[in-house]
Amino acid sequence: HATKKTMADHLRKYEQLFTLTPQRMRMITQAFSEVLDNGLKKHNQVVPMIPTFVFGWPTGNEVGDYLALDLGGTNLRVCLVSLQGEGKFEITQTKYRLTEEQKHDDGEKLFDFCAECLKTFIETNLSTVSEPGANVSFDAEEKDKKSVQVEQTESTGHTETLLQPGQQLPLGFTFSYPCDQERIDHGVLIRWTKGFGAPNTEGRDVAEMFRKSIEKLDLPIKMTALINDTTGTLIASHYVNPRTKIAVIFGTGCNAAYMEKVSEITKIHDLGLNKSETGPYSEMAINCEWGAFDSHLHEHLPRTKYDQIVDETSNKPGEQAFEKLISGRYLGEILRLVICELIDEGVLFLGQNTYKLEKPYCFDTAFLSLMESDPTDELLMVIGIFTHFFALETTLAERQFFRALARLVGRRAARLSACGIAAIVTKMGYLDEGCSVGADGSLYNKYPGFADRVHEGLVDIFGDKGRNIVTHHAEDGSGVGSAIIAAMTKARK
Ligand code: ADP
Predict the structure, then answer these.
(1) Gap from CA of 372 to ligand 1 centroid (Å)
(2) 3-state helix, strand, coil in the chain (%, to 5)
(3) Is the Cα dihedral 172, 178, 180, 182 positive or negative?
(4) Architecture label for domain 55-231+477-492
(5) Is the terminal CB of the chain with fewer CB neighbours within 10 Å at N or C?
């Protein structure tokens, strides 16, 4: 008869399920690269390879005051950015809380709320030069103040910005969901991602919707550019570090952007764009929306049954297949599902009440970070997480198992990301000369060893030459990047 399995025995099973061999990674990279190419040639592909109408790199000499509003995930953020040229800038920003209800409330209301936050921000941070007789100040009487500030205004020594009567500040609107654009100040939402689901928004021009909300409040703002955070990150990182050729976001979602030759984006050649190899309009940033890689057909990525459950119980089954294996929103949930399976099998927490752990999405990806960085032999941090948040007692063997499991899930995410980066590098021929990848998001910034694992993955795919590709912490794309793009747009008009 079978002897009782130890936690180490259980771990071996999960090691098999979650480990990616270099060979498998190269296959994924190859397939990924082909999918990226298809997205440039044809409309409505799984990975949409969205043309951003951001033409070429910034010079580093863009100057002036710009506003940026960032609607991208957990919070809503408003920034005032002073570009000072030579790759320098100052920024003042405030974050506002966004509730789950607001993410699923009517789209129009969501944009009205964004405009209200802008109004609050302007009233706090911008002074209007008053002229005798001319009343250009805002209605200071706020009867119904709905915007809830979650963080004090942060500033990098901003000198006070004065607004002349009648002056309109250019605003870059960072809207980090896949949109079809025909020009820089327009964008039709293809579909919500990252847990958003506001009705009456998909299929509509969100730039226009937001513009209407701004008009309702009569704000001194001209929205000049609709930007994806990933594109903003690409531009902001290049502004400061010109070796940057690719940007990747590892946050609630996962996405990448890079600069492509317009001559290669054949699906938009009918728009009458310049198809020559040189000149100011010969390159355009592409927002890959690579989180959608392998959606629906699931041909290329190794998915475990836990990944399938995550997918099936998500609000968008079948979609964002790559993202669901990588991004911060899902890693904790994947680990939780493994633990729940072992609870059901009677392996873990026998005799204890596990209801707190049975709630979907209760296990935050930040817990994986904490478990992996626990420096104590007893794994005191892991004890703390399970007792404090889930009222559960653990043995040392169990804690070691949880930590090892976190390592498997986190490492797989990093190595899959390496495949995506490698696909762009291969496609663009960056391997020999090397390049830098601007990366941002909590997963990249806070998960211990995440960047090293991406780098190891690149070496597994490319061999030694993989060392030519390095990631670095990106500049703030949705604030500074958005402002730079608003400035580039203005300069080219
Ligand atoms: P955004 O929502 O704009 O993408 P972030 O980049 O902060 O914002 O990403 C949020 C995601 O990162 C959440 O899914 C959260 O679970 C995860 N996260 C937060 N803190 C950590 C951490 N310390 N380690 C790993 N993941 C984290």
Answers:
(1) 15
(2) 45, 20, 35
(3) positive
(4) 2-Layer Sandwich (3.30)
(5) N
Q: Choose, from 176, 327, 417, 482, the residue flagged as catalytic.
A: 176
Atom of ligand 1 nearest to the CA of 74: 2
| Measured distance CA(245)–CA(428) in Å, rounded | 10
Question: From edge to edge, which strands make up the β-sheet containing 75-85?
Answer: 149-155, 88-97, 75-85, 63-71, 169-175, 221-227
Cβ contacts of residue 170 below 8 Å, gap of 6+?
A: 66, 67, 221, 222, 223, 224, 225, 486, 487, 489, 490
Q: What is the pLDDT of residues 278-291, one digit of tens each?
A: 777 899 999 999 99
Q: Give CA–CA dist 349/354, Å, rounded.
A: 7
Q: Which of 418, 429, 81, 49 is nearest to 231 (CA)?
A: 49
Report the separation in Å between the CA atom of 271 and the middle of ligand 1, taken as the mean of its atom positions: 38
Q: For residue range 350-379, what is the model confidence (pLDDT) as tens digits?
A: 999 999 999 999 999 999 999 999 999 999
Residue of 443, 447, 453, 476 to test ligand 1 pocket, by largest number of atoms within 8 Å of CB: 443
Question: What's the angle, vertex CA 47, arms to CA 45 and CA 52, rounded to 5?
Answer: 100
**Identity of residue 4:** K
SS3 85: strand
The tokens for 74 are 């957990």
Place of tokens 């994947």: 334
pLDDT digits (tens, 9 = 90+) for 197-249: 899 999 999 999 999 999 999 999 999 999 999 999 999 999 999 999 999 99
Has 478 been annotated as catalytic?
A: no
Q: How far is the CA of 475 from the centre of ligand 1 (A)?
A: 17
Q: Which atom of ligand 1 is the closest one to the Cα of 332?
A: 16
Cβ pair 233, 247 in contact under 8 A: yes
Residues at CB less than 6 angstroms from ligand 1: 72-74, 251-252, 328-329, 364-366, 369, 441-443, 446-447
Q: Which residues partner with 97 through β-bridges?
A: 75
The question of ipTM being above 0.90 is answered as yes
User: Do 186 and 205 form a contact (C-beta atoms < 8 A)?
Assistant: yes
Please confirm, yes or no, whether 180 is among the known catalytic residues: no
> Could you tell me if 175 and 228 are in contact, meaning their C-beta atoms sit under 8 angstroms apart?
yes
Nearest atom within ligand 1 for CA of residue 370: 23
pTM: 0.89
374 is catalytic: no
Q: How many CB atoms lie within 10 A of CB 263?
A: 14
Q: Give the whole-angstrom CA distance, residue 364 versus residue 329.
A: 8
Sheet hosting strand 50-55, strand order edge to edge: 50-55, 283-287, 254-261, 244-250, 435-440, 469-473
DSSP state of 479: I
Rounded distance between C-alpha atoms, residue 17 and residue 408, angstroms: 9
Of 82, 147, 185, 191, which is the active-site residue?
Answer: 191
Nearest alpha carbon, ligand 1 atom 15: 328
